[in-house]
């Protein structure tokens, strides 16, 4: 469960998420990519509320701006 998470990433920054096993890294990435849903709060990416986006809009955001490398 994620609680009280706030992340601000500036244009041009590359970010990696590293922490001990079981610390919800994958949950954070899934929520950011909207592969998982949230119960409360909001998720914004490039000033767009992701919870309100349709699948086609998400695809247009993901394609050029998001990438995942799983271990």
Distance between the termini: 21 Å
- Number of helical stretches of at least 4 residues: 2
Task: Decide which structural class fits the backbone.
Answer: mainly alpha
Report helical residue fraction.
Answer: 25-40%
Enumerate the spans where pLDDT stays under 50 for 5 or more consecutive residues. none
Q: Return Rg in Å.
A: 12 Å
Number of strands: 2
Overall description:
Residues 2-71 form the ABC transporter domain. GO terms for molecular function: ATP binding; ATP hydrolysis activity. This protein has helices spanning 25-32, 55-65, and strands at residues 44-45, 48-49. It is mostly helical. It has a two-stranded antiparallel ribbon. The chain starts with 24 loop residues before the first helix and ends in a 6-residue tail after the last helix.
Sum this structure up briefly.
The protein has helices at 25-32, 55-65; strands at residues 44-45, 48-49.
């Amino acid at each position: 469960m994620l609680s009280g998470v706030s992340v601000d990433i500036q244009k041009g920054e590359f970010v990696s998420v590293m922490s001990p096993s079981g610390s919800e890294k994958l949950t954070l990435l899934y929520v950011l990519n909207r592969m998982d849903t949230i119960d409360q709060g909001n998720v914004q990416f490039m000033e767009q509320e992701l919870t309100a986006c349709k699948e086609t809009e998400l695809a247009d955001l993901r394609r050029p701006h998001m990438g995942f490398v799983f271990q």
